[in-house]
Design brief:
It is a single chain. The protein is mostly helical. The protein folds into two domains: 89 residues, no CATH class; 217 residues, MetI-like fold (Orthogonal Bundle), CATH 1.10.3720.10. The protein is 73% helix and 0% strand. The radius of gyration is 25 Å and the shape is globular.
Length: 325
């Protein structure tokens, strides 16, 4: 088991290094610091002196990967790659263009992102599995038929419709909860109810239909026919055998999402005014704050790789054959 985990972690290291190198190439080779300065300063103030000053203030005036003016190790450490890209492996993200520490902002905003994403994930997973099991239990009946129709209808509607429609109906017409905003502590609950409900409903169609497909595939296998031949009731077959053997594809879709919960939802946080990492990323893109965007791209790749490792580990808990291999 331990050797299995170590192998998965070792496989992830070169992937993360490769993602970091690609990010560095996109931000500093394809889009050079001079291009960043021109986009930030605007057409009217673009002069060689202004570009040089902008780069000096943000530490972009150094060579990319090799500094000929320095001696020894500083030839590599006094470069943009080491200070802006390699430093992220030590979670040193530097400062945003407005002067605020990026690492502090990430730690502060992560709580707000989790306050939305975690309830949506847990509540949604339970609701989708229950609905899918009910549809499979009553398969080939009107319950199953209209359930599939409802899922397809929910899948066909854009997520923006749920957000805008929910804000208008529940927040503006009925005045049940605030349309947007956020508060610390338990006072945040009234601001989170609407985005959590909308998050669950928006994914209900696709997720429920996917789980139903997984369960139906398991229902046609030999072990199910054997269980029925032994006289087990359909409820026992469904919950004791089918649900357990369907855990691997379910874990594939669920566990890999857990680390991504820390990054928040870009659209949801922006529309509801939640000060999380999703809205932080959108604001950085709109203001062309490249330091923040680089940090969020790195965190996104890191969390996704962690999710893949957790998925592999979770396989060993539900499938003994993987432990033997």
């Amino acid at each position: 088991m331990l050797n299995y985990i170590i192998r998965r972690v070792l496989y992830a290291i070169p992937i993360l290094i490769g993602v970091n190198l690609i990010t560095f190439t996109l931000f500093f080779v394809v889009n050079s610091p001079d291009d960043m300065a021109r986009m930030q300063l605007g057409i009217k103030r673009v002069t060689p002196e202004a570009i040089t000053k902008w780069k000096q203030e943000r530490g972009y005036d150094k060579p990319l990967v090799y500094n000929e003016r320095k001696e020894g190790v500083e030839k590599f450490t006094r470069t943009i790659f080491f200070e802006k890209s390699a430093a992220m492996f030590a979670f040193r993200f530097g400062r945003a263009d407005d002067g605020r520490d990026i690492a502090h902002e990430i730690k502060t905003r992560m709580v707000a992102s989790l306050a939305i994403a975690l309830p949506v994930f847990l509540l949604g997973l339970g609701v989708y599995l229950v609905l899918a099991l009910v549809m499979v239990f009553f398969r080939a009946t009107y319950v199953d038929f209209w359930g599939v129709v409802l899922c397809v209808a929910l899948m066909s509607i854009s997520g923006l419709f749920y957000i805008i429609g929910g804000q208008f109906l529940i927040g503006k017409l009925w005045h049940l909860v605030p349309i947007s905003g956020y508060a610390d502590g338990f006072a945040a609950a009234k601001f989170l109810i609407l985005p959590v409900v909308i998050g669950v409903v928006a994914s209900a169609g696709a997720s429920t239909r996917w789980y139903r497909t997984i369960f139906l595939e398991e229902m046609g296998k030999d072990y199910v026919r054997t269980a029925r031949a032994k006289g087990l009731p359909e409820r026992a077959v469904l919950f004791r055998h089918v649900l357990r053997n369907a855990m691997i594809p379910i874990l594939t879709g669920a566990v890999v999402l857990i680390p991504l919960l820390f990054l928040g939802s870009l659209i949801t946080e922006s529309f509801f005014g939640i000060p999380g990492l999703g809205s932080y990323t959108i604001d950085a893109i709109n203001s062309q704050d490249f330091a923040v965007v680089r940090a969020m791209v790195f965190l996104g790749s890191l969390f996704y790789i962690i999710g893949l490792i957790l998925t592999d580990i979770s396989y060993t808990l539900v499938d003994p054959r993987i432990r033997l291999e």
